[in-house]
Amino acid sequence: MKNILFVCTGNTCRSPMAEALLRHKGKDIFRVKSAGVFAGDGSPAHPNAIKVLKDRNISFDHRSQSINKTLIDWADMIFTMTGNHKNQLCQQYPESIDKTYTLKEYILHGKDEEKGWKQFKKTMVDMLEKQSNLQHKKSDSRSNGDNKEREKKLQESIEKDMKIVRELEAKFPDLDIKDPFGGSVEDYEEACREIEDLIEKLVKNF
């Protein structure tokens, strides 16, 4: 069985709906959890999320949790609700890059997007490694003229990588699932339908 982690912002709307839907539709294939990049721990799912799931005869006792390394290590695959969530995870947990996708991207992506994402991941990993090296150099008390020059070149290289990352991001299609937080039941129903369609394709693909 695959361990699947869904990630959104507060872990009260989109990722809990995705978790509940996949548990319901793929219970013999997947173990499922969800978390949020800015979640507080212990909050229930939004009442509108609970309602649209109940309308599908899915009951779900949910408590929010913040993303952490234990969850990252547990997951075989991580599906985020937006590209921004994905980028935050990849920067915070670079070891997760090869298993992190937006849900839409994983289900709907084409070869051009896949090629661009591979280049994006490689550039991101290189940039993060350079940033780490730069921090070590700046903290080195033995810093001298030669080190300062190397720091300058490293900073310039990081800036070039960042430019490439931003250019690649601008070329990616819109792969976000709209956040219904603060919206009506109809907004939650729209988000749930979109997630449900993607979940059904995910189960079918496995």
From TrEMBL:
Family classification: Belongs to the low molecular weight phosphotyrosine protein phosphatase family.
Protein name (record): Low molecular weight protein arginine phosphatase
Keyword Protein biosynthesis: no
Basic and acidic residues bias: start-end ranges: 137-156
Segments of this protein annotated with the region Disordered: 131-156
Domain Phosphotyrosine protein phosphatase I: 2-205
Keywords: Hydrolase, Protein phosphatase
UniProt xrefs under Gene3D superfamilies: 3.40.50.2300
Membrane spanning residue stretches: none
